[in-house]
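Continuing from the previous page...

OK, I double-checked the sequence for Anaphase-promoting complex subunit 2 against my notes and this is the correct one:
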Amino acid sequence: MTNLIWSKVCFTFPFLDGKGFGTETMEEEGGYEGFDLIKQENLCTFIEELAINLIENEMREKIAPEFWKNFNNRDNEVDGFNKFKTAVRDLYNSVTLFLPVFRKLERLRDYCGVRKVTYGEETLYGTFKVIVGATLHSQLSLGHKVVTEDFYRIAFKVFCNPEKSGGDQDEDEVQCGGCSQELEQCHCDEIMATFNETNRKLIELDILEKLAGDVITALIHVRIENRVQEMCNASFSCSYISSLENYSISFSNETLLLSQWLDTVVLGWLSKVYMYSPAQDITHQAINKFKQKLLHHLYETYTCTRIDQMFNIIIEYPDSQPAVEDLRVCVQKTDLRGYLTRKLEQTLVTKLLHQGVNTPDVLTAYVAAVKTLRQLDPTGVLLDTVTQPVRKYLRNRHDTVRCVVTALTDEGPSELADELVRCQVQNVDENSPLEDDIDNWESWEPDPMDADPSKTAKSRQSSDIISMLANVYGSKETFVTEYRTLLADRLLSSISYNTEKELRYLELLKLRFGEGHLHYCEVMLKDIYDSKRINGHLTSDLNFDLIRKQEFPTTALILSAQFWPAFKEETLELPQIVKDHFQIYTEAFEMLKGNRTLNWKPHLGFVTIDIELKDRKISLSVSPIHATIIWHFQERLEWTIEDLSHQMQVPATVLRRKIAFWQSQGLLREVSTDMFVLVEDTPGGRCKDSMTVDMSCEDEESDSPMASAHDQREEELQVFWSYIVGMLTNLDSMPLDRIHQMLKMFASQGPMSVECNVQELRHFLDRKVREHKLLFSGGLYRLPKT
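Thanks. Re-ran it with the corrected sequence; updated structure tokens here:
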């Protein structure tokens, strides 16, 4: 290329001669002499590539660094707003200097008939936008999101200001809710004008989405999340699903529908952002599509919020039923069922399953969880999955069954007691195949994917709360055994013979668990009734003459030993006069019943005593051991623990605990270690008039007279020991499985049979090995040689 040709080309495009951009002054009809030369020399593509290269260098070396320099050293939110505004303004002023060049190059293309795709764009104006966006992105500043967020956050706040959105602003307000300035110095109009102008420039340069798209979306999401939190935080008694579908929520000082909030506030602000887009139809479609995404995000946010609050929702059930119903609908609309299962299971384990929560509270939460999750998921799959750790934990707590039975038969308000009365027995044979109702085949739905395939839908839905609690142990026998023990406690601790309430609960439990399991309990209640009848008969019938023979009235609870739980084995030597009264009563009973006699339990029952002191008279109802203690102090004024323990045949530790009651009543005083004396005078001197005080003994320990479930089980397992000794004597040695099979064949027969699984038998035999009553070697058990 000659200098003359180059000079003419530079005359047409002055920036090629180093005169800088912005010097293009060619009119629409002039300056085509240079175009002819360029076309003649075939220089169109060369000049276009050279111009693009020069523009890229200018963008890369000067404009982009100056643009990103504004995003550094941001002081506060307002400073970030101003920095973003300045950066976009300077960028726009700089890059618009290139527009005349690209327009002239576009005309050159048309004149020369050149069609070329550059950077994926057919037009040079499109190429120009690609260059601007790519160059800025290549030098992206680390702090650009912070400044961008400042700009759009302030603009969004101003847009949502009640005064700007047509709402009523409080007359007492002295500060603008949008710009946070005093009302006389409000800058909201200036901010919105700057906001609109800045977005217009970004849209013209086609970098709005690249520069601020993620920030705008994140800002809207945060706004929605905050709105949901404000709307339903710790409020479970109202349904908000209508707020999500019909969209009614509180906004500012008036009621706005959430749909309106999305349209007028969120999408209204979004329309402001894109209001200068050249393709308004496409933009409108994009905003409507974005609205569906926002609505889905709204559901997800609300669902996650309710899932995080699920433990409190369970505890407050049934007051929280509206929140549960909302969550049921939302879980169907979102893919958050798995998150709900994991989160709730983890929350229950963290907040319930530790020693800091007592068993009644765990049971209360479990019952509430059952009711809540049944409403949330009628299929029962969620309930079965989430509460599995709770059931396992309750199975390992020793007092679970007792707490359940106590709650069932408690006089006070109890959900389980109400459930026992309210619910009817569901006569479902779980061992028979369950057929779905043919009439409802159109509404049939498959089980969720996380359902246990070994369980049918009907079996998961048929179990009531009480049956679920009873089946925590895998069978009803343990539950019924504990109820039998608790019933025995209540009957023995009652001074009266009134069994009406216990009979009512028994009839309800018989409907629930069947008469066979509770036959022993029926006999126990019948014993109480018969005891009342026998006592009345022996006292009133002159043939027995108990009133004349006894110095004080004696009555008895006559129990059928084989039907009652085992009693604690405690010793107590009663005074001779009491034993004589027992003998008189026994002889009268033998006369009445013929071939039956009585075996007395001296440590059980109640004794009504009158204690006459120097200045007062006290009437008390106490246990036999308490009565025996104070009885001996009328014979001797001083007793040591050792002497009294020997006299009463009671361990010294137990005796000291029982004496503490009389110390609390001021009748006994410890004068030296283990030496107690009777105190007849009240502190401060004798009273003027003798006084009578009616009191009842409330033993602080409130020990049950019945043997614990563990002790009862140990006694039951001792039935096997004689069989095991006989088998090993005859067969020398046997493995565990063989012993278990033989016991099932011979020892587990009859009405008083005892069941024992392999694991329980193993523990029993291992304990005998530790007691040196058995030897174990090579997997075989044998008796030690004597």
